[in-house]
């Protein structure tokens, strides 16, 4: 996983403003698709908003993984993947959008966005708050184990 998780965070010029712009556009898309989920509106009315939400969401994930792939091992990244799985599975399980799935995804988003760092940076796999320093220690220990 060395190619995914670099020894240090990758620099991205304008990263803060890129994040703000993508997050704002993402929220606009989420607001736009609310009608489709909550009021069972025809798909054509909210499809552009869905594309905006999915596109900006994908770009935010790519940005996070590029800057620091450790994000995928932390709860904040894993919950994004869970939200995406919920959207995908609900599409195949029900013919119409389910408001409760949409609401659950919004709740997950709100909780993880405002949770303390010990929660957001927790790794289910490593069962600890996974910082860059801790990742380096874990990686070194694994390399030593493989060499023996």
The number of domains is 1
Query: Rounded to an integer, what's the Rg over CA atoms?
Result: 18 Å
Average pLDDT works out at 91
Order of helices and strands: HHHHHEEH
Name the helicity range.
Answer: over 70%
Q: Which residues sit in consecutive blocks of at least 5 with pLDDT less than 50?
A: none
How many helices does DSSP assign? 6
Which overall shape is indicated by the principal axes computed on the Cα atoms?
Answer: elongated
Taking the alpha carbons of the first and last residues, their distance comes to 20 Å
Q: What would you say about this model in short?
A:
The protein is mostly helical. It has helices at 15-38, 43-67, 75-93, 99-114, 117-120, 132-147, and strands at 122-123, 128-129.
What does this structure look like?
This protein is mainly alpha-helical and 148 residues long. The protein has one domain (15-147). The chain contains 6 helices and 2 strands, in the order H-H-H-H-H-E-E-H. It has helices at residues 15-38, 43-67, 75-93, 99-114, 117-120, 132-147, and strands at 122-123, 128-129. Strand 1 and strand 2 form a beta hairpin. Helix 1 runs antiparallel to helix 2 and helix 3 (75-93) packs antiparallel against helix 4. The mean pLDDT is 91.
Question: How is the secondary structure organized here?
Answer:
Elements: H1 15-38, H2 43-67, H3 75-93, H4 99-114, H5 117-120, E1 122-123, E2 128-129, H6 132-147
Antiparallel strand pairs: 1-2
Helix pairs in contact: 1-2, 3-4
Key attributes of the depicted protein:
148 residues, mainly alpha, 3% strand
């Amino acid at each position: 996983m060395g190619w995914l998780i670099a020894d240090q965070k990758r620099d991205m010029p304008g990263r803060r403003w890129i994040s703000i712009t993508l997050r704002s556009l993402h929220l606009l898309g989420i607001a736009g698709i609310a009608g489709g989920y909550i009021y069972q509106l025809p798909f054509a009315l909210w499809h552009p908003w869905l594309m905006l939400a999915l596109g900006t969401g994908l770009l935010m994930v790519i940005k996070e993984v590029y800057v620091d792939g450790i994000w995928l091992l932390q709860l904040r990244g894993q919950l994004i993947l869970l939200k995406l799985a919920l959207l995908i599975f609900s599409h195949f399980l029900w013919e119409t959008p389910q408001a409760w799935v949409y609401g659950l995804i919004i709740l997950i988003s709100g909780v993880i966005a405002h949770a303390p760092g010990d929660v957001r940076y927790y790794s289910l796999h490593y069962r600890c708050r996974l910082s860059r320093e801790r990742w380096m220690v874990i990686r070194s220990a694994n390399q030593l184990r493989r060499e023996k």
